[in-house]
Amino acid sequence: MNNAISTICEELGEGMKRTQLFVDLKMNRKTGPFSDLLREMIQTFQEDGYAEVEVSQEVKIDNNEYLIIFNAMANEHNE
User: Fold this and answer.
1) Is CB count within 10 Å lower at the N or C end of the chain?
2) What's the structural domain count of the chain?
């Protein structure tokens, strides 16, 4: 699995930002089920300090590559 992550943030005041996390997910036979990968990514984002993490959109690029867009809330230190 090889991932690239980028973010877009919207200032909400009081140190919080609404954030969209864009993940370019490349899968292979060893990565496991797609749903398990999504759960692991959400857990990782939460461990990194993001709150209210949810999948906004999944776009299949080809057989082994997806663009996943997550919505989350972030403190200023997460940018």
Assistant:
1) C
2) 1
Domain extent at residue 63: 2-78
Q: Which pLDDT belongs to residue 1?
A: 44
Asked if 31 and 1 touch (Cβ cutoff 8 Å), the reply is yes
Residue 46 parent element (H or E)? helix 34-47
| pTM of this structure | 0.75
3-class DSSP state for residue 47?
Answer: helix
Cα 29 from chain centroid (whole Å): 21
Instruction: Give the domain CATH number at 52.
Output: 3.30.30
- Residue 70, class by beta-carbon neighbours within 10 Å (0-12 exposed, 13-18 middle, 19+ buried)? buried
- Provide the Cα torsion 21, 34, 46, 52; round to 10°: 70
For residue 2, CA distances in Å to 28, 55, 70 come to 9, 19, 17
